[in-house]
Amino acid sequence: MAEISWIKLKTTMFDDEKIRLIQAIPESDAILVIWIRLLVLAGKTNDDGLIYIQRNMPYTDEMLATLFDKPVNTIRLALTTLGNFNMIDLGQDGMIAITNWEKHQNVEGMDKVRLQAAKRNREYRERKKQQTLSISHDVSVTSRDGTDIDKDIDKEKDIVQKHQHSGKSAKALETDFEKLWKLYPNKKGKQVALKAYKKAIKDGVSNKQIQDGIVAYKKYLTANGTEQQYMMHGGTFFNQRSWDDDWSINTPTASGFDNYDFEAQQRKVAEQFEQ
Fold first, then answer.
1. For the ranges 3-12, 117-126, 263-272, which has the lowest average pLDDT?
2. How far is CA 189 from the centre of its chain?
């Protein structure tokens, strides 16, 4: 993701009811500093409010303590407090997400930064390609550098196209997500799941792929008699794109399997998407 050098803070943020309530508890100053630092990290990541080092590497409490120069216990107190006030969402995999990021920040402006960065990279690669052609006087450049430049340009085009995805409005995307969320058995980590869903759709994943993955996972759970407390949180399932995992059932005669009409459930969800 293209890093940005700014985030938006409202001048009335300290009039907010949640901020005022936080100010009344111990370590309030430290908690509010950590809140602002988390907003800054989310801006640097520039991925719909998610906070991570790499996609599969969230920050640990110890990492945040080092970055923010705060005791680990203070970091944990802040994360718990902010989570209780629904200001952040803590995924089971440790991923932190700013709740309602699009309301806090200028999301369109941040998307523009990403697209501009892709455009600059594309123009730079094109200049390099032309320089290579000029030096070699060989129109059919077959060198490794020329091939890599073409590949990089194609990748950057893909990035732009992904951000200019299906054209669905935010409301339409959320409506489609709600239909899938109703189907998922363990409804925890909804905000993380929603952000991961939007990212997956931008990357070209279809609702049908996700739906089929959820249905396969439910069959797997039923066949193995998995209890609710051991089911993967919805936020984790979506964030890890677990619809692509292999949920093969090794025991086709597992108890309870015959009593659940998964095909009917799958048809029901498919009909909802067609409405």
1. 263-272
2. 12
